Amino acid sequence: MKVVVVGAGGTIGSAVLKLLTVKHEVVPVSGSAAQHRADIIDKASIEALLSKIGQVDAIVCAAGGAVFKSLSALTDADLDKCLHDKLLV
After folding, report:
1. Would you say 30 and 37 are in contact if contact means Cβ atoms under 8 Å apart?
2. Measured in whole angstroms, how far is the alpha carbon of residue 32 from the centre of its chain?
3. How far apart are CA 64 and CA 83, in angstroms?
4. How far is Cα 36 from Cα 30, in angstroms, rounded to an integer?
5. How much helix, strand and coil, in percent to the nearest 5, is found in the chain?
6. Could you tell me the pTM of the whole model?
7. How far is CA 32 from CA 10, 40, 69, 73, 75, in A?
């Protein structure tokens, strides 16, 4: 199975990449240092990536920023940023 992992350079993405590589052909994608780069908020960037790598069986997205604080310290703005960056982009 050919799986694209977007956000492969991050904390969660690198762990997902490590687990999937055992059984699958994995294409790591990052916004910075990776063989395959893409900007997840730029439709043309995503289209160019998919054109370059060809047909895939699955796409895993672990990209996007998050605010790391204790739950009681998170503000509404912190939660909005996490939800936006992880779920809405």
Report:
1. yes
2. 11
3. 9
4. 7
5. 45, 20, 40
6. 0.75
7. 10, 12, 25, 30, 28
Q: How many CA atoms lie within 13 A of 55 on its CB side?
A: 2
The predicted model gives 25-31 an average pLDDT of 91
> Structural domain boundaries of the chain?
2-64
Cα separation, 67 vs 35, in Å, equals 27
DSSP secondary structure, 15-52, as one string: HHHHHHHTTSEEEEEESSSSSEE--TT-HHHHHHHHHH
**Whole-angstrom Cα distance, residue 13 to residue 8?**
4
Determine the pLDDT at residue 48: 93
Q: Is the pLDDT of residue 89 over 80?
A: no
Residue 27: the pLDDT is 94
Q: Is 36 helix (H, G, I), strand (E, B) or coil?
A: strand
